[in-house]
Design a protein that fits this description.
Two copies of one chain form a homodimer.
Chain A (H helix, E strand, L loop, with lengths): L3 E3 L1 H14 L4 H16 L10 H10 L9 E6 L2 E5 L5 H19 L1 E9 L6 H9 L2 E7 L20 E5 L7 E5 L6 H10 L8 E2 L9 H5 L2 E2 L5 H17 L21 E9 L6 H16 L15 H13 L1 E3 L1 H13 L12
Parallel strand pairs in A: 3-4
Antiparallel strand pairs in A: 1-11, 2-3, 4-10, 5-6, 5-10, 6-7, 8-9
Helix pairs in contact in A: 1-2, 2-4
Chain lengths: 354, 354
């Protein structure tokens, strides 16, 4: 089966069914399925259905636990702490999002820490929903070790992502979703597969020297953006998500793939700000539109057709893939096909065209 | 007069006197003097007493206003909005810091927006004080145009800085203070003076091409860290500091140097988090110490003696310059000498050694 176009709603149904058959409630299964298909729709394959097989494997291994619910274990003023009880990451993430927005509506700002969570998909899933609710959202998460501190040569920090969602009016909203590493590990693995070299600022080898060899990079450490600046950003995110919340931090965060004995114990921070404390939403949206127009009017480098706002390319991908279908890579489609067949479903039912 | 060593307390006195003679109250003058000397002590000359002459010039030009006080114009729940009334930036910044910490103590988190502010020195001044008060602080500020959006070729965003302060126990605290550009404009100006070339990832020329010529870079745009990631971070900071607070944003923020007709109308955001909602401070500090120890134990690249925590080098500079004296560059010392002489003071009184 080669790469094909799939209807996003039918993929969501299939993923929901697979998770329900693994033991998740209908509602939890749908949340996770939505978060994965959301990433595929935006063109962020690395955080899409490609992750479903390992989620199912971790459920079967008992390190993602479905027998309880994320709990608010502290709520004082405008802060809260959620214990995810090692549930599916997107289920925990949605609980944190709802709590942060609820606090922001009451208090103007909501700061929610999360411990005992899992890989929660792409941060943009949460930022997008905050935007739809007219709120500003900042999401931070730590992640398994991948980057050394500046001067070090062994991975310590994850590629700890930060995402921000801010609504606009007629213009596309601001949706930044970035890892604090220059490049994703997946991109280096892809270069290795293709026998290509990588730019010298992506990674260091196991002795700390810059390398263009994907093999040497995979045995070494990813580099943070901006040198010591990105190291600082990754550490800041790790302290808030790990030390402050009581989740794991540094190399204590377990791998999604290489460790099926222990829960990951990832930590997150969700912070929402209620725009309406500062402006009526419609006024803020008009100000954002004027501002975005101004940015788009900046003179461009030869060959650049349009200046894009963070998240705008992914938004266009989403529109196009919603109508034309999601293209899944052959490897991913094959694995989904196998998983579907195991429970008597057929991935081909989700195809738009042969 | 060549470069000399100066006693930091006496420099602070002189700077306070200069500001008082320009019309500032004793208390306001001392705040600004402290913020500038703090930067010099940390070895961040660009944000130290080198800025005092232009502050005085802007007071004389009436675009920094001393006839009122920063006002809290909105306070609801855990959010507040401060109008700086175009007062001295550090005076406005301190009002915002106090408000953010006061809200954090009441509500667990405090989110304070600021409009009508000025250049407020180095963000680390505020982060350091939050650390001393056992609070986590995030400071954001926008700044005059210097960086183009990705794909653009004209400066639009400032080098919009972000700073974070987080207390530790026996280990040095975490104090990240970074611009979102790869390099500071001042570094490029210095390379020009010295006839040196600059790395190709610092700036683009006026047609958008990477350049190693400091002249071409100064006529072009600074580059953000991590390409489009840094563009996103700078835009995020501008939206929060400018659009949300009602301060200027983008190229609307006026230059500190090139515009003596209009107030800068810089915007800031100060966000404090009360650690004690999550852990007794002493427990958090022990956890930070263990974590920092772990980072410092990561194997190092050949030639690296120690892995440093963000802010640690500057902390050591401070300790050393507090005891051995601050070294001021000849140009800065000369200008201070001239300003002191105008009001009958002698900079040489602050010298530690001839």
């Amino acid at each position: 089966m080669g790469p094909r176009h799939f209807d996003w709603r039918r993929l969501e149904e299939l993923a929901t069914n697979l998770l329900v058959r693994a033991g998740a409630s209908e509602q939890h299964a749908r949340t996770v399925a939505q978060s994965l298909v959301h990433a595929d729709l935006r063109g962020i394959e690395s955080h899409g259905l490609a992750r479903l097989p390992i989620y199912l494997e971790r459920i079967n291994a008992g390190v993602i636990r479905l027998d309880s619910e994320p709990k608010v274990i502290m709520q004082e003023g405008a802060t809260a702490l959620i214990d995810g009880d090692n549930h599916l990451g997107a289920v925990v993430g949605m609980a944190a999002l709802d709590q942060a927005i609820s606090l922001a509506r009451q208090m103007g700002v909501g700061f929610v820490g999360v411990r005992h969570s899992n890989h929660f998909g792409s941060c943009s899933y949460y930022a997008e929903q905050a935007i739809e609710r007219g709120q500003i959202l900042l999401v931070l998460s730590n992640a398994p070790e991948a980057m050394a501190p500046t001067g070090g040569i062994r991975p310590f920090f994850g590629t700890n992502p930060v995402a921000v969602g801010i609504p606009a009016g007629k213009q596309p909203p601001f949706l930044l979703d970035m890892a604090t590493s220059v490049a994703a590990r997946g991109k280096i693995a892809l270069a290795e597969k293709r026998g290509e070299s990588i730019p010298a600022d992506w990674a260091i080898d196991s002795e700390g020297n810059p390398t263009t060899s994907p093999q040497a990079a995979l045995a070494g450490s990813l580099l943070p953006i901006g040198g010591a600046k990105g190291y600082g950003l990754a550490m800041f995110i790790d302290i808030l998500c790990g030390i402050l919340t009581g989740a794991a931090c540094g190399p204590g965060v377990r791998s999604l793939y290489d460790n099926l004995e222990h829960p990951q114990n990832i930590g997150h921070v969700f912070m929402a700000v209620d725009i309406e404390r500062f402006w009526p939403l419609s006024v803020f949206q008009r100000r954002m539109d004027a501002y975005i127009n101004e940015i788009k009017s900046v003179p461009r480098r030869a060959g650049i057709e349009e200046i894009m706002i963070p998240g705008e390319i992914e938004r266009r991908n989403m529109e196009s893939q919603k109508s034309k279908g999601i293209t899944l890579a052959t490897g991913i489609a094959k694995e989904l096909e196998r998983l579907c067949a195991e429970i008597g479903l057929d991935l081909r039912d989700a195809c738009i065209e042969e």
